[in-house]
């Protein structure tokens, strides 16, 4: 009977040891999960590209680009207010590898999203995620929320709420990520000296 108890405790010890070893290996060898913190790889998501009608993947469509992922809705007043600044930033930097993926989470008719973007004259990519899954993937608390993602696919900045994306500071941040230098807009051309003879 004593050897039976000893054998049972041996099995228990082997099982506990195996579980402990498995836990250690999982934490050491498991892939790093995507997160929504600055410095982490941006989570992938799929949404409908309104222009093409195709479902697109963030990682596939925007690989190697600096991209601003903006999560918004047509009923959101701050979203409407920040869109012109996003368009201005896009117009200035699109030829250098900058993209915007504005993901509508509207549950309603796609025509509402199209009318909204048409009214504002938006030319950057408008995506639609009727399911709202992107809100779960990016752990958003509302709209608008934006994520600036660098060329390597890592989150560089997270912005909750309306933001002045076309400000000189934001233009410099995006330009630096693109590896370009913006022309100085503060260059002052000296005025002609007044004519002292006349």
Quick description:
The protein is an alpha/beta fold and 198 residues long. It has helices at residues 2-29, 58-61, 77-93, 110-120, 133-137, 168-178; strands spanning 46-49, 55-57, 66-72, 98-104, 125-128, 145-149, 155-160. It has two domains: 1-30; 46-178, Glutaredoxin, CATH 3.40.30.
Describe the overall structure.
With 198 residues, this protein is an alpha/beta fold. The protein has 2 domains: 30 residues; 133 residues, Glutaredoxin (3-Layer(aba) Sandwich), CATH 3.40.30.10. It contains 6 helices and 7 strands. Strands 2-1-5-4-3-6-7 form a 7-stranded mixed sheet. The longest helix has 28 residues. The chain is elongated, with a radius of gyration of 26 Å.
Features:
198 residues; alpha/beta; Glutaredoxin; seven-stranded mixed β-sheet; 7 strands; 18% strand
In the predicted model, the low-confidence regions spanning at least 5 consecutive residues are 186-198
Sheet-strand content, in percent, reads 15-25%
How would you characterize the largest beta sheet? 7 strands, mixed
CATH class of the largest domain: Alpha Beta
Helix segment tally: 6
Radius of gyration: 26 Å
Summed up, the domain count is 2
The 3D shape can be described as: elongated
Biggest sheet: strands side by side, in what order? 2-1-5-4-3-6-7
The N- to C-terminal Cα distance equals 123 Å
What CATH architecture of the largest domain do you see? 3-Layer(aba) Sandwich
Derived structural class: alpha/beta
Tally of DSSP β-strands: 7
Give the helices and strands as they follow along the chain: HEEHEHEHEHEEH
